[in-house]
Design goal:
alpha+beta, two-stranded antiparallel ribbon, about 10% strand, globular
Length: about 80
């Protein structure tokens, strides 16, 4: 992996609970929104924001895991924005 920050984030994801259900992590993943969705993850103009997360074995097997993860990420960003 060429980006040390991304590699460190993926290693850290292994100790986080599953984004979707809270179970023990099985796999780390990275969500890199397209340009149109960068605003939804509060990326500063001209910057790319990626979100590192984990999934448990059961959620990793879900056919719609990517959509569910995106929905969970957007919900968390919105909740964080409401708190600030």
């Amino acid at each position: 992996m060429s980006d040390p920050r991304l590699a460190a984030g993926l290693r850290a994801a292994a100790s986080k609970p599953c984004l979707l259900c809270g179970r023990r992590a099985y796999v780390g993943a990275v969500y890199a929104p397209d340009a149109a969705s960068q605003r939804r993850v509060c990326a500063p103009p001209g910057k790319l924001r990626m979100v590192v997360y984990s999934l448990c074995r059961q959620c990793f097997r879900l056919p719609d895991k990517v959509r569910r993860a995106e929905d969970a990420i957007f919900a968390q960003v919105a909740a964080d924005a409401d708190r600030n």
